[in-house]
Amino acid sequence: MDRNTLAEWMKSESLKVHDLANQMREHIITIPTGSRTAWLEELCKRFDHFTAHVRRMMSIEEEDGYLLPVVEVRPSLSKQVEMLRREHDELRELTDDLSKRVKSLKADHNLLLRDTCTRLQIYMGHVQRHEEHENHMVLYTLTQDIGGKD
Ligand SMILES: [Fe+2]
Description:
The protein is 79% helix and 0% strand. By secondary structure, it is an all-alpha fold. Fe (ii) ion binds at residues 58, 61, 88, 130, 134.
């Protein structure tokens, strides 16, 4: 990806992650007290949607060399870039772990459902902080029109 494409793509992906995370948060904010079968199916669906997006995004980011245009413009950021790239490996591991847990949930679980929802909130926080860090790095390095927009 060239510099402008990367900057634009990063902004639009950021919005998608934000939307998908909100959809997940809306769903897990309350665990129903009655039948949980449909709720659990929906949780799996939203989780799969969110994680598929995160995995695809990380693969695309790594395709032509992770944040290469940033390092070309600011070689001094190479350590920070490498730290973010390593976070992809950690996010993949967290995603795999949570995926196993989510798929093993049963509608009559109580504590496991609560615990998983708490872990999902923390996990989405990690994804969003990672993504915001990348986004800021790209925007501050590769675009000149910052400061004029929110
Ligand atoms: Fe990333």
